Automatic annotation (TrEMBL):
Any Pfam family: Cupin_2
Species: Dethiobacter alkaliphilus AHT 1
Domain of life of the organism encoding this protein: Bacteria
Protein name stated in the entry: Cupin 2 conserved barrel domain protein
UniProt domain Cupin type-2: residue ranges: 35-100
InterPro entries linked: Cupin_2 (IPR013096), RmlC-like_jellyroll (IPR014710), RmlC_Cupin_sf (IPR011051)
Signal peptide coordinates: none
């Protein structure tokens, strides 16, 4: 059994400028813990794999394609491959999500 304690994984600024912790990466899945401080954003982009977001803590706005929604703790948001997505910590609080990509892509 392998236990990953997210609070013990060291994060670093990713290429989009937010704190990111790589939790799992193998050929089938990549799981990143993204932590956005108030006012931070991950701008619109798309990836060639399916993605879902699980909100760990806080509230923020997620854009999938042309749709935007304010989401909060324990919400799951689906994003099909090649669909634009963006995240915004625009609710005056920290916004922490798990970003799960299947299959995996390299960072």
């Amino acid at each position: 059994m392998k236990i990953i304690r997210m609070n013990e994984v060291e994060g670093k600024k990713n290429h989009r400028g937010v704190n990111a912790k790589k939790l799992i990466q193998h050929q089938h899945t990549t799981v990143m813990n993204l932590i956005l401080n108030p006012g931070e954003i991950i701008p619109e982009h798309s990836v060639p794999v399916d993605v879902f977001f699980y909100v760990v803590d806080g509230k923020g706005t997620i854009q999938i394609g042309e749709e935007e929604a304010v989401v909060g703790e324990k919400d799951i948001i689906l994003c099909p491959r090649e669909t634009t997505m963006a995240l915004k910590a625009d609710q005056g609080q920290r916004f922490e999500v798990l970003n799960v990509k299947t299959p995996s892509i390299k960072y």
